[in-house]
From TrEMBL:
InterPro entries cross-referenced by the UniProt entry: cNMP-bd_dom, cNMP-bd_dom_sf, RmlC-like_jellyroll
Keyword Nucleus: no
Domain Cyclic nucleotide-binding: 11-57
Protein name as it appears in the record: CRP-like cAMP-binding protein
Glycoprotein in keyword set: no
Matching Gene3D superfamilies: Jelly Rolls
Entry keywords, A to Z: Activator
One protein family per Pfam: cNMP_binding
Length: 190
């Protein structure tokens, strides 16, 4: 697992192999069981995660009690709730393990200490965040102008394994459609 972390970090930094090894050794890798809630909607986040193995869902429950899925995170994706800009730091989302997961667990309270200990880490983290935000922006823009069928086809192309990993009703919510509409789209495409 440490090799996976190091290879991922190499994409975003020119830190030496020795520095990357040291950072990887200091990371806290934790196993979570399927169904574990990593963050409840309304709690103040104090952790961030990086998925080594498994699938994590980001969702919210609206006023009527309906769950809305915003994202799924799988291998080599980071899971962070960015809400430090808000007066109320409470999360608008819950984060739950959809499968047994192996995650790098970061403690946000020692983030600055880690940056002080490893001067290149902050720059690397910024590059990772910039890539993630860029992808989210592109995905959102594409989502807004596409039909449900186009969204499903894009998901098949970009993240084909997700279809077998998550329940259909959550996948439909993620695509912004009903489970019945998703079933019809799948039938038409078969």
């Amino acid at each position: 697992m440490k090799d996976t972390i190091i290879q991922y970090m190499k994409r975003f930094t020119d830190l030496s192999d020795a520095e990357l090894e040291k950072i990887a050794e200091d990371l806290h890798v934790t196993t979570f069981k399927k169904g574990t809630i990593l963050l409840h909607q309304g709690e103040v986040p104090d952790k961030c995660y990086f998925v080594l193995k498994g699938c994590v869902r980001q969702y919210a429950v609206d006023e009527s009690g309906k769950e809305i899925t915003f994202n799924f995170f799988t291998e080599e994706q980071s899971v962070t709730i960015f809400n430090q800009h808000m007066n109320n730091k409470a999360s608008n989302y819950s984060i739950c393990c959809m499968e047994d997961c192996v995650l790098v667990e970061g403690d946000l309270s020692i983030e600055q200490d880690m940056y002080n200990m490893y001067p290149g880490l902050e720059k690397m983290t910024r590059k990772i965040i910039e890539e993630n935000i860029g992808e989210m922006h592109d995905d959102f823009a594409s989502f807004m102008v596409s039909t449900p069928k186009e969204r499903y086809k894009a998901l098949l192309k970009k993240r084909p394994g997700l279809i077998q990993r998550v329940p259909q009703h959550q996948l439909a919510s993620y695509l912004g459609i009903t489970p019945e509409s998703l079933s019809r789209i799948k039938k038409r495409l078969e």
